[in-house]
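User: Here's a structure from my thesis project, written as structure tokens. My advisor, Dr. K., wants to see whether a designed sequence matches the one we expressed. Can you design one independently, without my sequence as a hint?
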């Protein structure tokens, strides 16, 4: 299936990205900062999943950040939309066979670590994915990667260092932490957040970890940045809403855009 999708894209553009970027909820504004050469909507690609989540436009933008050729996903695919894990990571795999070697995953997440505040950035050092099904289940595609990929360094230490040093240069206070993916679309209960904290999670969301698994499987070097868009249930007494997530993302958008742009230039 990936071959058919690649064939469709190659009829439109011969663009070969160096870096793939996934923009999380409310973070799509970075796309406006890219010198775009080509835009392709997911819905136009044969047998391709389509984003249905609010604020996810569902399109690839191919262009440049500095001298880096990038493919930006303005909208991702979530399990809670009804897609299988394999469908959810299809865009990641497609960009890999198009030529991308590095992947930057971004998301809006709930803060579990009590040292985090709404609006903070967290560079992901590791993740917990055992509560959602692996995208690697089923028959392995040996053309993508090995049957049993090592996950001892999902998030590249080299790229983590770049993000941290870039944040310092941009006068952005950035945290480090472990990200937990749950299925959604409901926000978590206080008991679930208590459990997540006990097993070591600093932030929680509904994406990213399975994309990182698929990325490591097919040979990407991976980095991840979470925006703490709200404090998780039980950490804050206030009810959590999608509106709060979007409002936080909009508020920190200029800092986020600057951090991503300047980091990618060093990747």
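Assistant: Designed independently from the structure alone:
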């Amino acid at each position: 299936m990936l071959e058919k999708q690649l064939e469709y894209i190659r009829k439109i553009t011969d663009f070969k990205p160096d870096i793939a970027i996934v923009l999380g909820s409310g973070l799509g504004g970075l796309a406006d900062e890219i010198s775009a050469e080509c835009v392709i909507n997911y819905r136009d690609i044969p047998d391709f999943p389509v984003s249905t989540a609010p604020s996810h436009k569902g399109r690839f933008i191919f262009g440049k950040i500095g001298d880096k050729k990038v493919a930006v996903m303005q909208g991702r695919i979530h399990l809670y939309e009804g897609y299988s894990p394999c469908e959810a990571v299809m865009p990641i795999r497609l960009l890999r066979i198009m030529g991308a070697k590095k992947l930057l995953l971004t998301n809006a997440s709930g803060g579990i670590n009590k040292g985090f505040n709404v609006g903070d950035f967290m560079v992901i050092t590791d993740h917990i994915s055992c509560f959602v099904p692996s995208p690697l289940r089923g028959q392995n595609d040996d053309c993508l990667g090995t049957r049993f990929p090592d996950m001892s360094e999902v998030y590249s230490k080299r790229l983590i260092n770049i993000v941290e040093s870039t944040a310092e240069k941009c006068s952005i206070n950035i945290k480090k932490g472990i990200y937990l993916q749950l299925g959604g679309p409901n926000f978590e209960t206080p008991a679930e957040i208590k459990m997540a904290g006990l097993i070591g999670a600093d932030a929680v969301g509904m994406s990213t970890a399975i994309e990182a698994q698929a990325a490591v499987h097919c040979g990407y070097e991976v980095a991840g940045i979470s925006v703490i868009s709200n404090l998780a249930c039980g950490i804050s007494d206030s009810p959590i809403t999608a509106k709060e997530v979007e409002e936080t993302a909009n508020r920190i958008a200029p800092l986020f855009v600057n951090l991503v742009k300047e980091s990618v230039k060093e990747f």
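When you compare it with your expressed construct, this may help: Strands lie at 19-23, 35-41, 59-65, 68-74, 102-111, 121-128, 174-181, 203-205, 221-231.
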